[in-house]
């Protein structure tokens, strides 16, 4: 009787072990696919942050943006650029930060539009 009980326990452990290993393989494959999908945008965005010396979040904070639309970026940029003009008592440092923030956000919009175009071309194929 104990022999049969041990065999049942061993079989149960084997079945659960195989199911667990299969689930791990599927999860690993899914995470690899997600990483490949994100890698191009993440690398380009990181490169843009490195080149401009400003992160995307910092640029959004400087221009006081909640949504990243080209119209809102331009509107906030123009306002902050004029307000910080040295001739009206503004700060050249802050004005240059505003310019760098707009450059960073424009680069991010370009990256997103490039990715959208690539995905549309892939879906058409």
From TrEMBL:
Family to which this protein belongs: Belongs to the TIM16/PAM16 family.
**Membrane-topology descriptor:** Peripheral membrane protein
What is the species listed in this Swiss-Prot or TrEMBL entry? Knipowitschia caucasica
Q: Which UniProt keywords apply?
A: Membrane, Mitochondrion, Mitochondrion inner membrane, Protein transport, Translocation, Transport
Give the record's GO CC terms.
Answer: PAM complex, Tim23 associated import motor
A Gene Ontology biological process annotation?
A: protein import into mitochondrial matrix
Q: Does the keyword Kinase apply?
A: no
Q: What is the protein name for this chain? A: Uncharacterized protein
Q: Which InterPro entries match?
A: J_dom_sf, Tim16
Q: Where in the cell is it found?
A: Mitochondrion inner membrane
């Amino acid at each position: 009787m104990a022999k049969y009980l041990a065999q049942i326990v061993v079989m149960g452990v084997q079945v659960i072990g195989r199911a667990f290993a299969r689930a791990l393989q599927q999860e690993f494959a899914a995470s690899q696919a997600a990483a490949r999908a994100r890698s191009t945008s993440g690398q380009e965005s990181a490169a843009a942050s490195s080149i401009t010396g400003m992160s995307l979040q910092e640029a959004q904070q400087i221009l006081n943006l909640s949504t990243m639309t080209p119209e809102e970026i331009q509107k906030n940029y123009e306002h902050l650029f004029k307000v910080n003009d040295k001739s009206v008592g503004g700060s050249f440092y802050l004005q240059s930060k505003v310019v760098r923030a707009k450059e960073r956000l424009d680069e991010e919009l370009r990256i997103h539009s490039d990715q959208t175009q690539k995905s549309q071309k892939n879906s058409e194929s």
